[in-house]
UniProtKB/TrEMBL annotation:
Transmembrane segments: 20-39, 45-66, 78-95, 101-122
UniProtKB keywords: Membrane, Transmembrane, Transmembrane helix
Organism (species): Streptomyces caatingaensis
Keyword Transmembrane helix: yes
Superkingdom, taxonomy of origin: Bacteria
Protein name per Swiss-Prot or TrEMBL: Uncharacterized protein
Length: 131
C-alpha cells in the first residue's frame, strides 16, 4: 500500500495490522498440518509439534513479507509470495504421504502459479490503466 503524502511527510498505511493475515493463515496451516500428520502415522505429540513448527516458520516469514511489502519491487514481492506458497504446499503434500518428487512438482507448480498471479495483482495495483 502506498503511503499518503502530507506537508509533514509520508503517512504510513495503518488500515490493517501487519500481523493479522499471517497469524490467521498460520492458525489454518497449523490445524491442517496437525490433521494431515495424524492421518498419516505421526504420533500425537509429533503431529502437534510438527504443526506448531510449520505454523511458526510460515507465520514469521509471512509477517516479514507483509511488513516489508512497500520496500520491495513487484517482481521480488511476487517471487517471495510464490516461493512461500510453493514451499508450504509442497511440504504439506509430503506430510500427506506423497513422494518427494511429486511433492516437489506440486510445490513448484503451485509456487509458479501464485508468483504469476501475485505479479499480475501487484503490477496492476502499482501501474493502473489510464483512461
Amino acid at each position: 500500500m502506498p503511503a499518503r503524502r502530507t506537508q509533514a511527510g509520508p503517512v504510513p498505511d495503518r488500515s490493517r495490522p501487519a500481523w493479522a493475515v499471517p497469524v490467521g493463515l498460520g492458525v489454518v496451516l497449523f490445524l491442517y498440518t496437525v490433521f494431515l500428520s495424524h492421518n498419516n502415522g505421526f504420533s500425537e505429540a509429533g503431529g502437534w509439534l510438527l504443526g506448531l513448527v510449520v505454523a511458526a516458520v510460515a507465520t514469521g516469514i509471512g509477517y516479514v513479507l507483509v511488513r516489508e511489502r512497500n520496500a520491495m519491487i513487484p517482481e521480488v514481492r511476487a517471487l517471495s509470495y510464490g516461493a512461500l506458497a510453493g514451499i508450504t504446499i509442497g511440504f504439506l503434500h509430503s506430510v500427506s504421504g506423497g513422494s518427494w518428487l511429486r511433492s516437489l512438482g506440486i510445490g513448484l507448480g503451485f509456487g509458479v502459479l501464485v508468483g504469476l498471479l501475485s505479479y499480475d495483482v501487484f503490477h496492476w495495483n502499482q501501474y493502473p490503466m489510464r483512461r
